[in-house]
Amino acid sequence: MATDPTRMCEILVDLLDVRIKEVQGEHRGPLTIHFECRREIEGCPECGVLARVKDRHAVSLVDLPTNGRPTRIVWHKRRFFCPDFDCPKGSWSEVDTRIAFPRHLVTDRAGRWLTYQIGEHGRSVQEIAEELGCDWHTVNDTLLRYGEALIDDDSRFGLVAALGLDETLFVREGPYHRLRFSTSIVDVGSGQLLDVVPGRDSKASTDWVESRTCDWRFHVSYATLDLSGPYRKVFNEALPWATQIADPFHLIKLANQKLDECRRRVQNQLCQRASKTATRAHRNQPHMVDV
């Protein structure tokens, strides 16, 4: 059990190997915590000579809220230099990725938290920005850094038994609002979106499927599509053994479309026959002339 006030503050902040220097914001508003690393000075990464502290510079980082209050932690980083004049290293700043990565404006734990909140729970970027007390761009840039690493990881989804392709209107581009489509690749069994490729032709989707491993592709037994010729070509070339299944929505839509066409054709024929019969009857009637 900790009884030292400084150590208790360090435990509450929950940062490893740091020394709390100052806490600002006693009542309301944002909370600012100043700290420095307590690690010993290491050797020069170039020549191994014991480095020396050149100066310190403060770096402000967005952190998780504390008791509902937006929190900023100010890391007083040490800048080291090599005392060996022949060493080409020069000076460098200390780095601790457990706190934050270089050139990031958000702590590592806050970056992981906001990525989970937006990706798993579907919260908006603006909502997270208001909770953290920062601007929209800070949250969005952090989300891109952490999110792209998760997307590029092929192990984020396992084997897929039923693979589906579906087109989506992505954007209306230019002054003439040209339609730009994208293709969503989905695990039909779990409903998980695997990836999004540009266009709705067969090339991008075929390249994506063929880039998977052989074990992954051979595990796909069913392929769902929306009666699209390019998507049928994808499955014929990349997954010829998979059983192709048409999307029920598009099947019903096509059936209703054919039913409407049949109804219009029959109605036009009946109306045309009735119109011709009425015209003939009108022609055969005697015309009365007033004298």
How would you describe what is shown here?
It is a single chain. This protein folds into two domains: 5-151, no CATH class; 162-248, Ribonuclease H-like superfamily/Ribonuclease H (Nucleotidyltransferase, domain 5). With 291 residues, it is of the alpha/beta class. It has eight helices and ten strands. Strands 1, 2, 3, 4 and 5 form a five-stranded mixed sheet that branches. A five-stranded mixed sheet has the order 8-7-6-9-10. The protein starts with a helix and ends in a 7-residue tail after the last helix. The longest helix has 37 residues, at 248-284. A hairpin with a 6-residue loop joins β1 (18-24) and β2 (31-37). 37% of the residues lie in helices and 28% in strands.
**Helix proportion range:** 25-40%
| Main beta-sheet strand count, sense and barrel state | 5 strands, mixed
Radius of gyration computed on alpha carbons:
33 Å
| Strand composition percent | 25-35%
**Ends distance:** 124 Å
Structural class of the helices, strands and pairings?
alpha/beta
Output the helix-strand order.
HEEEEEHHHEEEHHEHEH
On the 0 to 100 scale, the average pLDDT is 85
Low-confidence stretches: none
Dominant shape: elongated
DSSP, total strands: 10
List the total number of helices.
8
> How many domains make up the 3D coordinates?
2
